[in-house]
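Sequence in, structure out. Go.
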Amino acid sequence: MNRAANIIAIARREFTIRIRTRSFTVGTLLLVLGVVLIALLPTVIGKIDTVDATKVTVVAADNALAQRSATTISTLLNAGAGAGQSGSSAGIGQPDFVVSIATGLPAAREAVVRGEASGVLSIERSADGTLAFTFYSNDPASGRTASLLQQAANAIAVGDRLDRLSIPASQQATLFSPAAFSVAWPDPARTEPIQGGAAAVGQDMLAFGMTILIFMIVIMYGNWVAMSVVEEKSSRVMEVVLNAATPFQLLAGKVFGVGLVAFIQYAAVVVAGGVALLAQPTIESVVLGGAASASMVPQGLTPGLLLLFGLYGILGFLLYASLYAAAGSLVSRMEDVNSAVMPMTLISTGGYMIGVYASTGLLDARSGWITALTFVPFLSPFMMLGRVSTGIAQPWEVAVSLVLLVAMIVVAIWVAARIYTVGVLLYGQRPGTRAVWRLLREGM
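Output:
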């Protein structure tokens, strides 16, 4: 009972000190603000797009051709921009491109010079009857607007050729009807549907965000644990505390106290982000106008994935925080903390980078070496969530990685306790690899 009471007392003291610091308050506010802004980013982009609609003017000698071309351009450009380009126009009543007709080319070009329009598309008919298009704009020739207008010009030219060949409009429509096309898995055993681009990107970003949060928990609060040990060593408070508690109790209390601070801060971040996502349809209707769309949970966000996020976050923190505490016990000055914790920082950064690259598709998450690394306890907290969110990881793989992670935590705590027992009493030394090995053998 005395052991548990000591651990709780140390954890309470560590928690009280850390949670009252200005860095905790400011850091929490900045993280909450950042995650809310990220969650509301589609609405912000939509507001910018509604203000900055691209204005294009069409000039043609034949008024009927100008009217038909303006309709075609407006339909094609706004359909492409709303569905796949900017993603902001659909459903809010404000097109990304506003197409108008002018009668005189010089006046229309002057309007572009004054900045009243983004460009003028001049349509002329040559001697052989074909159409020629010239786009006058200050934007680059390879820019987005010029590229979209070129596609629209091709459609206008094809339609005009069909008209001159006396092909009825009803038959013209059948010429451009899309062919049947589907995408399937190469493995016949896989029966789940292949997700579209938006769903796949949503899942990638979801795994990416969760991996970042776990990495921040490990690095930020692991360093807090190490610095707390060094602070008490440098002020000689450690010697007083050791009279009332064992080194193991001191280590456990620091890990649990800082861990509770981490839980509170990231619970605030997750709750703020969730509320912002759920409120986004209502905010969008107020900012952009129109009725609020139905609230939708981000693609791939399931209770199981949230549970795994919590498990890997907590277990990953316990694994690294124990080793950070042991590393902090080996040095006596704050300026030596970074060099002491460098091995853990490099390992966690490596796992984070591989996990991010795999979750975003830069690395093949199905490759053998990626699969093998997800079972390594020091890397699995950063790598397994990406494979789970995309449906690659099997349930048994997740179970095995969790079991190995728990087993490694037990080993890490045992190793950290032995180093901590002797390391907290070392002053004026910077132990190397041999000294650490000696501490492991001599630890009580």
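Check: The two ends are 21 Å apart (CA to CA). Residues 2-39+196-442 form one domain.
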